[in-house]
Amino acid sequence: MKPTELLKVAAIAVMTSGLIVGCQQSSDEMAPEPTAEEECQGATPEVRNAIYAAKLKNARARNLGAEWEENAKLIEEAEQAAADCQNVRAKVLANKAEDAAAAAIAALQNKSEPMEVAQEPVQEESPYMGGYLVVAGDNLWNISGQSTIYGDPYMWPLIYKANSGQIKDADLIFPGQYFYIPKAKGPERAAAIQHAKNRGAWSIGVTEASDLDYLAQ
């Protein structure tokens, strides 16, 4: 290769390297300098709300005498984590503290409330032994004397008193009426028989004074 050609090659090489260096310098000058890590902005609103809720619940537990010692520590750790921009950890700790306070309150309330013992409902005994539908030819005397009722006609005042709302005159009843037949208990039975035997004169369509006295007993 001739000396002149060597000089040309060398000149081209120098020019090329200069362009490369220049481009590299231009690229370096244009590229933005790496920024420092963004500064910590503290807790997010969501985390602040979680910490506030935990403090509120813990204060209620403390007022009731149910505060757990670990709760205050959890809240402090949550606040520190929030200050260090560890928002996820801060929220977890705050929620844990709130749940612990709620559990403490519930445990105290369950302890103070007496346990309710389920009681079986008391079934009241019916005062009636059954009922009777009046048919033609019936009267209180023969109804009471039936073997399926009392088997004693002198106990008719029991039927009269139990159905006084629809019997205006003990001597006048009507087919189709339905009477409740009360159970014959000792004192009521004796009073009914005594009234039947000592009722005195009676007439249809009139409520006897003795009947009114009996009903008032």
Brief characterization of the structure:
This protein has helices at residues 3-30, 45-63, 69-83, 87-112, 140-145, 156-162, 186-197, 209-216; strands at residues 128-133, 178-182. With 217 residues, the protein is mostly helical.
- How much is the radius of gyration in Å? 52 Å
Extract low-pLDDT stretches: 16-31, 33-37
Which class of secondary structure composition applies to the elements?
mainly alpha
Morphology call = rod-shaped
CA(first)-CA(last) distance? 152 Å
Q: State the helix count.
A: 8
> Strand-and-helix sequence, N→C?
HHHHEHHEHH
Number of strands: 2
Averaging pLDDT over every residue, what do you get? 77
Strand content: 5-15%
Helical percentage: 55-70%
How would you describe the overall organization of this protein?
It is a single chain. The protein has helices spanning 3-30, 45-63, 69-83, 87-112, 140-145, 156-162, 186-197, 209-216; strands at residues 128-133, 178-182. It is built from eight helices and two strands; from the N terminus they run ααααβααβαα. It is mainly alpha-helical and 217 residues long. Strands 1-2 form a two-stranded antiparallel ribbon.
Observed structural traits:
217 residues; mainly alpha; two-stranded antiparallel ribbon; 2 strands
Question: What is the strand and helix layout of this fold?
Answer:
Blueprint: H1 3-30, H2 45-63, H3 69-83, H4 87-112, E1 128-133, H5 140-145, H6 156-162, E2 178-182, H7 186-197, H8 209-216
Antiparallel strand pairs: 1-2
Helix pairs in contact: 2-3, 2-4, 3-4
